[in-house]
């Protein structure tokens, strides 16, 4: 359990360093705990929120305030990916030719897990979600 907490802590620290380094086009956001409001999600169709009020509707007030500390709603929107799948599922963001691409790769294990990932995306960015033909680890 100690190693797992250390890895999670390192990931959070790394995310905060990326956020503190300047105004990025795509930034991962730290979302603490499960959403306050239960919704069914599809990784290929993320929820998009342009304001704190919309994030409150998706995640609840406490999560929205946490996200507001990490980004500016004036320049960015929130993309919220929520799905159930293998514990090895991955979602990776890349930027190429001015398009932010979020690539989903299914994991190989049959351990059903709930996933929740949020990104701050520059309002001017075009984005798409793709699914990899390969399976993960």
How would you sum up this structure, described in words?
The protein has 137 residues and is of the alpha+beta class. The chain has one domain. The protein has three helices and seven strands. It has helices at 2-20, 52-59, 61-70; strands at residues 26-29, 47-49, 76-86, 90-96, 99-106, 112-122, 126-135. The strands form two sheets. The chain has a four-stranded antiparallel β-sheet with strand order 1-6-3-2. A hairpin with a 2-residue loop joins strand 4 (90-96) and strand 5 (99-106). The chain is globular and about 40 Å long.
Described by the principal axes of the CA atoms, the overall outline is globular
How many strand elements?
7
Question: How much of the sequence is in beta strands?
Answer: 35-45%
- Give Rg in angstroms: 15 Å
Strand order of the largest sheet: 1-6-3-2
* Oligomerization state: single chain
Number of helices: 3
What's the domain count? 1
Sheet having the most strands:
4 strands, antiparallel
List the secondary-structure elements in sequence, H or E. HEEHHEEEEE
The helicity comes to 25-40%
In angstroms, what separates the terminal alpha carbons? 22 Å
Label the structural class.
alpha+beta
The chain-level mean pLDDT equals 83
Observed structural traits:
single chain, 137 residues, alpha+beta, three-stranded mixed beta sheet, 3 helices, 27% helix, globular
Q: Can you give me a brief rundown of this structure?
A:
With 137 residues, the protein is of the alpha+beta class. The chain contains three helices and seven strands, in the order αββααβββββ. The protein has one domain (2-135).
